[in-house]
Amino acid sequence: MKYNGLIVVAVLWLAAIVHLWLGQSDFGPLPLLMKEIVTAGSWSALQRLYSESFELMGFFDVNLPRLVMAILVGASLGTVGSLFQQLTQNRMMSPLTLGTSAGAWLGLVMLNVFAPMLVGQFSVIFALLGALTAMGLIVAIVGFKNMNGLPIVLAGMAVNLLLGAFATAIILLNDQYAQNLFIWGAGDLGQNGWEQVEWLLPKLLPIVAIVLFAPRVLTLLSIGTEGAAARGLNIGTTFFLLMFIGVWLVSVSITTVGVISFIGLIAPNIARYLGAMKAKHELYASGLLGALLLCMTDSLAIFVGQWSFDLIPTGTATAVIGAPALILIARKQLTAQDQMFFSMPKGAKETSARIYIMIGAIMLALIGLSSFSHPLSTEHYFQFPDAFEWSIRWPRMLTAIFAGGGLAVAGVILQRLVYNPLASPDILGVSSGAVLALILSSLLFGHSIHTLSPWVAFSGSLGALALLLFLGKKHQYAPSILILTGISLSAVLEALVQFSLTRVGEGKYTLLAWLAGSTYRVKPESALILAIVISAIVTMAILLSRWITLIGSGRQFASARGLNISAVYLVLLCLVAVLCGVVTTTMGPVAFVGLLGPHIAAIVGARTVKEQILLSMFIGATLMLFADWLGQIVVFPAQLAAGTLVSVIGGSYFIFLLLKARRD
Question: What is the pTM of this model?
Answer without folding.
Answer: 0.77
